[in-house]
Automatic annotation (TrEMBL):
Residues 373-386 have a biased composition (Low complexity). The gene is parB. Residues 304-324 have a biased composition (Acidic residues). SUPFAM superfamilies: ParB/Sulfiredoxin. It comes from Gordonia rhizosphera NBRC 16068. It comes from the Bacteria. One of its GO terms (cellular component) is chromosome. Residues 292-325, 365-408 are annotated as: Disordered. This is Putative chromosome partitioning protein ParB.
Amino acid sequence: MSNTTAHTTTTGAAAVELVIIDPAALVIGDNARSDTDRALTTTFLASIREHGVLEPITAIRDGEGRLVVRDGQCRTLAAREAGLREVPVIVTPAAEGDEKAQTIDRISKQWAHNEHRTGLSAREKAATIHQLRLAGVSPTRIAREHLHLDKRLVDAALTAAKSSAAMDAMAAQDSLTLDQAATLAGYDGDDTAITKLLDAARDGRFEHAAAELAAVAEARAARATLRTQLETQGITVHDSTPSFADDVNFAPLGYLYTADGEFVGRTDDDQVPELVPAASLHAVIDTDEHEVWSDASGTPVGEDSIDWDLDDDTDPDTAPEGDLIDPRTLTRSVRAVAIVHRWYVIDPNTHGLFTWAQINQRRTAETGHTDTGDATASAGAESAESAADRAARVAQDQADREAAEKEQRRRVLKLNKLGVAAQQVRRGKLREVLGRKTLPKGTAAAVAGFVATTLWNYHPLLAQTAKDADAQQVTTELLGADPMTALDGAGAERRQVITLAIVCGAHEANLPKDAWRPAGAFEYSRMGRTARTDYLRFLADVVGYSLSDIEQVIVGDLDAATISLEG
C-alpha cells in the first residue's frame, strides 16, 4: 500500500484535503471524457514525465475510503505511464443525496472542468517561446527538452515573434496558427500581401493565398523594382487601370499622334519620359515572362549565339556550327520581367499630342471640309489626308490588336500560375490524407462511390502516360511509395487508402496548370472536363479541401474573366 500524506483545510461545513499519493492508488471512475487516447499525446506524456502533475487532480472518497478521480483522469493515466510515484490530489466531499443526485453532480462538474478551459493563443505561444529564446535556450532545446514541440513549430513561433505584423494579426484573428503567422512574417511591410493572406484566412483558404503569393514572388519583386525606378523619375505608377476624376483630361499613349500625324503609341518605354514630362505620365505596370538560356556557370547566353538546328533528336556527336553553342549544353529558365503595360498622358494637347479625331477636327476647321470623298474632287483621286486617315486607322487597329493580345497573354500567364499554386496546395492536402492508416472518419461510403464512378466512367484516366501527366508517377508521388509495394503487409483499411491514392493520382494527372481553359484541345474533352469537376467536388465535399478561385473556375462556379490579375 502506498504512502499518503495529507493536509486538511476546512471551508464552512466542507472539508477539503490536499493529498500527495501514488497515482496507482487512485480509482478512475465514470467520466464525461471517454476518448483518453486523443488526450494522451506524446507531447502531454513528455510534459508529465518532465514536470510532473502541475495541476492537482480532483477526487472524492467513496464508501470504502478509496479516492475516486472526478477531474484529471488523463493526468492520472499519464502519471502512471510516466512512472511517477506521487501526484497532488484535492479531495472534496461527495455531493449529498442519492446515487442519481451524485451522478448529476459528477457529470455537471466534469463538463465544467473540460469545457471551460482556454489554452494559450497562438500569439501567447509565440511570445512564450520567444521569451525562452531570449533566456538563452536554443530552438532545439526548447522543442525537445522544455516544450516538447515539433521544432518546426518552434521555428515558426520565433519567426512570427520578430514580426509586428504577424503578432498583431494573431491578436486580431485568434484562429491563425503559428505556421500561418510565420508566413505572414515573411511579408512584413507588404500591406497588400498581408491583407490578401488575412482575408484568405477568414475564408479557410490561407494556404492557397500563400501558394499564390509564392508563385508570383519573382514577378512582385520585379514590379517593385520598376515601381521605384519610375516613381524616382516623378511618374505616377498603378498596378491596374486607374480611375481618373471627371475633370481630368487624359488619354492612353497608344491612341496619340503628334501634330504632324506621327503615331507615338509604339514609343520605347525608356523614351516616353523624353516625349512627355514625368509629372504628366501615369504608368500601369505588370510582368511578362522571358526565356533565358544559361551555360554551366549560370551566365546568360544570347539566342543569336545558339545553334537551334541541334535538339534532342539530333545525333549526340553532332557539333554546333562555327562559334555557335549547343543548346543541349544549356539550361533553359523562365524569368519574370517587369514592364509598363500601358501609359496614360494627362493633358496630352499641352504636350503636342492629339487623338486622330482631334487631328481630323483641326483639319476640318482649317480646310472647311472633312476627308470623306468630296464630290468636287477628281474621280479616283486620293487626297493625302485620306491616305493619312487609312494609315492612322491601320496603326490604331494594330495597336488595339497588340493590346488585346498582350492582355490575353497576361491573363493566361497569371491563371496558369494560379493553377500551379493550387496544385501544390491540393497535393499537399492529398499527401496528408493518403499518409494515414485509415480513411477520414465517416467517408468510407463516399470514397467507395467515388472510386466506383471513376472506374466506370473515367477509366481511361488511369492509363495516362504523358510526360507531365503520368498517372502512375503522380500516384507514387502522392503516396510516397509504389502503390503495389505499399499493399504488401497493409491492413484492410490502409488498402482502402492506397486504392484512393491510385484513383486520385489518375485525376491529378488530368489536371494540368491550364485546366481552367475552355474546351478546345483533346485533353479538354467532355469526359476530361466532367472528371475534373467530379474530382474537385469530391475533394471539397468529402476530404474537406477548400477550392481555390482557379479550381472554382474549373468546376464552373466562377468565371475566369472575374479573377483579378493584380498581385
